[in-house]
């Protein structure tokens, strides 16, 4: 499953869970205006529905957490691969500043490094964006699940 599809699936389930929990909260808030047995039926119905959604969330949760781990590993690999290139570029910059090489030599020698590092930065930026989305969704799940008593608070 692609990252986008997994994220969409997870957040769709989160929204459905939040919707049912909201209905439960609203029904409980209006409990004094309706007979207790009516409130209980509505609350129980939405509790059951929210628990069905929890099952769906749990089926993708492991994959979401695994994806976050994979993305973090991929990012670390990309960044560590660029360490030598960044050091080489810094060396060229220092040589330029102390006038050991000309601007033309610097431009010629640094062009490929700069292009490669821009590509690294683009890849890392895309990974960071995807990680931020997944982390936000996981935080939302932890908040919703804990508030609903489905997850234990830390």
Précis, in short:
The protein is 86% helix and 0% strand. With 154 residues, it is mainly α.
- Biggest sheet statistics: none
The low-pLDDT segments are none
Residues in helices, as a percent range:
over 70%
Count of separate DSSP helical elements? 4
**Would you count the extended β strands for me?**
0
Structure write-up:
With 154 residues, the chain is mainly alpha-helical. It is 86% helix and 0% strand. Helix 1 packs antiparallel against helix 2. The longest helix is centred in the middle third of the chain and has 46 residues, at 36-81. The protein is rod-shaped and about 85 Å long.
SSE arrangement:
Blueprint lengths: L2 H27 L6 H46 L1 H15 L5 H45 L7
Features:
154 residues; mainly alpha
């Amino acid at each position: 499953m692609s990252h986008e599809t997994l994220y969409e699936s997870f957040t769709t389930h989160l929204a459905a869970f939040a919707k049912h929990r909201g209905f439960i909260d609203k029904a409980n808030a209006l409990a004094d205006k309706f007979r207790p047995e009516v409130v209980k039926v509505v609350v129980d119905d939405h509790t059951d529905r929210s628990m069905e959604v929890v099952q769906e969330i749990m089926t993708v949760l492991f994959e979401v957490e695994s994806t976050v781990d994979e993305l973090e590993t991929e990012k670390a690999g990309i960044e560590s691969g660029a360490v030598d290139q960044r050091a080489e570029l810094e060396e060229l910059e220092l040589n330029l500043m102390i006038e050991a090489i000309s601007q033309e030599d610097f431009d010629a020698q640094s062009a490929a490094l700069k292009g490669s590092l821009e590509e690294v930065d683009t890849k890392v930026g895309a990974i960071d964006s995807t990680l931020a989305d997944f982390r936000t969704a996981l935080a939302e799940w932890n908040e919703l699940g804990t508030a609903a008593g489905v997850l234990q608070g830390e």
